[in-house]
Write a structure and sequence with these properties.
By secondary structure, the protein is an alpha+beta fold. The protein is 25% helix and 27% strand. It has 19 helices and 37 strands. Bound molecules: flavin-adenine dinucleotide. The site of flavin-adenine dinucleotide has 40 residues, from helix 1, strand 12, strand 16 and helix 9.
Length: 805
Amino acid sequence: MKTHAQAVVIGGGLVGCSILYHLAKLGWSDVVLLERDELTSGSTWHAAANIHGLHDNTNISRIQHYTMNLYKELEAETGQGCGVFQPGSLYLAQTEAREHQLLLQEAKARYYGMNFHKISRDEAERLHPLVNFDGIRCIMYEPDGGNVDPSGVTMAYAAGARARGAEIHRFTPVTATVQQPDGSWIVETPKGNIQTEWVINAAGLWGREVARLAGIELPLMPTEHQYFVTETIEGVANAGRRLPSVADRDGEYYLRQEGNGLLIGAYEKDMRFWAEDETPGGFGHELFADDLDRIMDNVMRAMDRVPAAAEAGIKRVINGPMIWSPDSSALFGPVPELKGYFCCNGIIPGFSQSGGLGQMTAEWIVTGESSLDMFGWDLARFGTWADKKFTKARVQDQYANRFSIHFPNEERSAGRPARVRPAYEMQKGMGAVFGLNCGWEHPLWFADEPGVKETNGFTRQNWWKPVGREVRMLRDSVGVLDISNFANYFIKGPGAFDWLDQLLANKIPTEVGRSCLAPLIGVRGGVAGDFTVTKLAEDEYMMVGSGLAERYHRRFFDMVPLPAGTTFENKTDVICGYNVAGPKARDLLQRLTNADLSNEAFRFMRSARITVAGVEVVALRVSFTGDLGWELHCAQEDQVTLYTALVEAARELGGGPVGGRALASLRIEKGYGSWGREYSPEYWPQELGLERLVKMDKDFLNKAAYAALMDRAPREQLRILAVEANQNADASGGEPIFLPDGTPAGKVSSGAYGYHVDKSLALAMIKEGVAKPGDAVEVYILGHPHKAVILSEPPFDPSGERLRG
Ligand SMILES: Cc1cc2nc3c(=O)[nH]c(=O)nc-3n(C[C@H](O)[C@H](O)[C@H](O)COP(=O)(O)OP(=O)(O)OC[C@H]3O[C@@H](n4cnc5c(N)ncnc54)[C@H](O)[C@@H]3O)c2cc1C
């Protein structure tokens, strides 16, 4: 075994082998995979190995599409059979909501050139004569759907990697990973040690134990999962061809051909955890005892749909473990707190995603960033707040609702509250309906009375009207928004300016009391973040950013060394904030402070330390609502005092508390982009209208990457659209946009009703040269075309008079 390698992959399951293959494919041949047993010794060997292309999340669809197409290429390249069967998949909708979901996926597939389309019942019956389609209102067909051979695919990745120079050592358990003073790692095994720049944790069921070797906890929890295979069924054996698989998600089971019988699997409500604290080290090719009673409700629904399945006996039952993250998406990416440690864990549909995940991991390690924005999968989305109790509750909910529709704006209650601010109880008493925001309970909207639960769906729900009242209240008088979910950083010392100047792309203020907006440029030159930077004192700055991206941004902060004598403090957990906004914001605040808030004394983008209602705050004259407003940042212990005073004063002026969902509408009326929606490392500054904030006459992080693309024409442009929302639904994000002649024109990044301007609105990335302001387009909301027009300016206050007034 060699003693040094560029990267060491721990775990020879499907995912680890794919990562090794893709690293080698990108030119890193000095790479090693260590497997404690035989390859496939975790979840991989016993999987049903179904493959699907379409997913609600666009980038996951891209990853799955890539993976589906890769298996045949792998076979051709390596000569190792992957057991690929692609007889197609039938997706069935029993409910109107499911139909909307499938129609939307069909529109997305058309946009991205993927194969997924609606078929008639006649055609479906020809494709799968054993299915009873009664009660099915819509059927989609994915011709490339099917299944693969778990072990064949893993061996093919391994063969492809070896052919490119990678080494694989079986029966070589990793017993320790020790970081060295220079940042490299020593990976210890009974057969010897390897020094490496990158450790990649692909240990599947043992992801937690391998992470613990490096001192980290991953929010993962294993469960049991069952499927069974029937004896021969005549209709299957005599079909003369392989039958398509059936995705009847409203029935909560999956079903496909296996040999001359059928394979049926289910995610039951009465689920079981396994190895809650630790996956046993000696566990390998064992299975759990069958417990088909647990999945019997689901199985009965499968047998109603495919009556032939009830005729045959059961040949084999598989009850094996799989390991989940709290939201069932992968835990992907370098651990922000550790140099050179990458995770790719918690993957549920590994056979649909292995190729894309391997490719994204390899891209990130070799080039510093993946080509697709992986933020939704980035392990940085969870912090230490995602503890065992939270993880277990969320996994239970994810497992039991695996096939439920996840609606836009849906907030699931499992495991909450995870963490709350002091004003939580007070907000609850005021009727706040909360969402989960980086672990915090965050007010989304205020109902007339406490205890109201929000409904979910693709159409407008019970929050739609109350949110409208909040938006109009703020625009007509004043609103108080909780912004304690923002991230707050403080940089202090003689090198504070230099550090910020080297990190961010805009000029950093040099005068106390000035603020600026500053983008962070990603490794590939895209937009990795946007911050408000304020000079608080001669040697002190405050930087406010997205709370969701706190750990994600840490990776970038660590790329710029702090000058001697300068400190960086993340105070997000101990700072709270409010945005007081609307035409009466000044009147409100002036009642509670002696500071002069007149436009002459306190201009837009200025800041000061002032006292409001007896509470010391940093006041910034900015507002994400696009209206006149101030952000007030205070110590967490003062949150209730400040909130009480602000809300009381607001009520006297005809205003009141406003939630995050109203903010989404307000910022879209003004055309402001938001991190994770519009702002993404996939897009260049000139595509997001941020190029004026990137200053080439100074240095900043990843400047060379931006310089290489700054003169390139935008591929897409951030635009704002007014939509004819005539089906009681607004865009929510992800909907494809076409020209009336069917040409793909773009996709929605955020959508909301603009209550003040009385228009349904969408922010969208529109393809350059395909459509421009003034053009008519069609937005596929609910999977149906909705007429829309691209606006030339935001419908609210385009000249910024309100903001600067
Ligand atoms: C019953 C069942 C049905 C399923 N059906 C499907 C399906 O239809 N479609 C689908 O896409 N997915 C399915 N899955 C999920 C799929 O199996 C997983 O997504 C996939 O196998 C995960 O692969 P992995 O490589 O991440 O992990 P694993 O397969 O768990 O591999 C991890 C590897 O790491 C090794 N390892 C652990 N610790 C160490 C160490 N210290 N040193 C060295 N090596 C170590 C282990 O021995 C193991 O080989 C199913 C799962 C189950 C349980």
